[in-house]
């Protein structure tokens, strides 16, 4: 067994060249430091990248599905994207509001910001922080898949999504957490 170093306390354990297993800390809260993922609002007015990770933006900018771009993508690989909110009210530590999961995004498409080749596991749900709950973080995590055309387990609900548990249940499907980014949004009338 060999251990591969990862970002921000993520533990990646590769058992052999053919299989990988991931463990994400239950209290995972930030994607700042997981470099190179770019999220552009559908209007094109807002770009979230390494230079402005965790900044506050209008939720209206992300009311429709944004463009996701990862210029370091390997054209021969496929990727999965997960978007979550760790600040949803009435959620325990380690639970998130699930906003989006896409699997099987072709690396060649991801380089160009076109993720339509991917399979929607859970469709896009825009940021919608309730009144009186302050700023919410919207975290995007990009995983390199171990194989092409994988079948991810579809979560039963969006609220109280146990991200770390779900990732561990995808045993052998993800091989690397390669990038991430996040922004903040708050309630707006």
UniProtKB/TrEMBL annotation:
Secretion signal, residue range per the UniProt entry: 1-16
Transmembrane portions of the chain: none
Keyword terms, alphabetized: Signal
Keyword ATP-binding: no
Keyword NAD carried by entry: no
InterPro entries registered for this protein in UniProt: PEBP, PEBP-like_sf, PEBP_euk
Source species, domain of life: Eukaryota
Protein name: Phosphatidylethanolamine-binding protein
Organism of this sequence: Timema bartmani
């Amino acid at each position: 067994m060999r251990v591969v170093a990862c970002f921000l306390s993520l533990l990646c354990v590769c058992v052999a060249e053919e299989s990988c297993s991931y463990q994400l800390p239950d209290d995972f809260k930030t994607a700042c430091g997981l470099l190179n993922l770019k999220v552009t609002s559908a209007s094109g007015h807002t770009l979230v990248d390494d230079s402005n990770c965790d900044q506050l933006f209008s939720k209206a900018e992300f009311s429709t599905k944004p463009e996701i771009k990862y210029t370091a993508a390997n054209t021969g690989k496929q990727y999965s994207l997960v978007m979550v909110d760790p600040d949803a009210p009435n959620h325990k530590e380690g639970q998130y509001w699930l906003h989006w999961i896409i699997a099987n995004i072709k690396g060649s498409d991801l380089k160009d910001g076109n993720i339509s080749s991917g399979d929607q596991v859970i469709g896009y749900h825009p940021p919608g922080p309730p009144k009186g709950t302050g700023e919410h973080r919207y975290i995007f995590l990009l995983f390199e898949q171990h194989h092409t055309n994988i079948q991810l387990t579809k979560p039963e609900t969006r609220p109280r999504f146990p991200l770390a548990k779900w990732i561990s249940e995808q045993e052998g499907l993800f091989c690397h957490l390669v990038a991430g980014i996040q922004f903040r949004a708050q309630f707006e009338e």
